[in-house]
């Protein structure tokens, strides 16, 4: 089993930046796919970004069109932590953000929630 703990959310003004962190623990040896999702009240969950790794080397990343050029997903192997750097934030980026992971994923990168078994508890991002 894999445990995920997000941190780094908060309130920021339009145009500002935040970096979300997701610390992985447990049986992480097979984890090769990680993603960030968000959900605002009354809206569908959206896959924001995903990273596919091989031997913990980043192979490929994908982003939602709404965040391309503003958000960056990355992995720090030494810290077993995946990050989401968010720049030029907009009010429409306000949501609960969730980290997700999958082991030995056959379909990765993926912005589809059903492709992930392991989820964090979420961290709130508010842009005003």
Helix/strand layout:
Layout: E1 2-7, E2 10-12, E3 18-26, E4 31-39, E5 46-54, E6 57-63, E7 71-76, E8 81-86, E9 95-103, E10 118-119, E11 123-127
Parallel strand pairs: 2-11
Antiparallel strand pairs: 1-3, 3-8, 4-5, 4-9, 5-6, 7-8, 9-10, 9-11
Short précis:
By secondary structure, the chain is mainly beta. The chain contains no helices and eleven strands.
Distinct helical segment count? 0
**Measured on Cα atoms, how large is the radius of gyration?**
13 Å
- The unreliable regions are none
Structural class: mainly beta
How much of the sequence is in beta strands? over 45%
What is the rounded distance between the termini?
37 Å
Number of strands: 11
Shape: globular
Describe the structure.
With 128 residues, the chain is mainly beta. It is built from no helices and eleven strands. The strands form two sheets. Strands 2, 4, 5, 6, 9, 10 and 11 form a seven-stranded mixed β-sheet that branches. The protein has a four-stranded antiparallel β-sheet with strand order 1-3-8-7, with no helix packed on it. It starts with a strand and ends with a strand.
């Amino acid at each position: 089993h894999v445990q995920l703990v997000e941190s780094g959310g908060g309130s920021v003004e339009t145009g500002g930046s935040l970096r979300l962190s997701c610390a992985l623990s447990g049986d992480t040896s097979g984890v090769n796919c990680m993603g960030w999702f968000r959900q605002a009240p009354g809206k569908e969950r959206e896959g924001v970004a995903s990273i596919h790794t091989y031997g913990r080397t980043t192979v490929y990343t994908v982003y939602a069109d709404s965040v391309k050029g503003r958000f960056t997903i990355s992995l720090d192997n030494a810290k077993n932590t995946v990050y989401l750097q968010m720049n030029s934030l907009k009010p429409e980026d306000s949501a609960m953000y969730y980290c997700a992971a999958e082991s030995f994923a056959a379909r990765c990168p993926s912005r589809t929630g059903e492709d992930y078994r392991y989820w964090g508890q979420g961290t709130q991002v508010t842009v005003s």
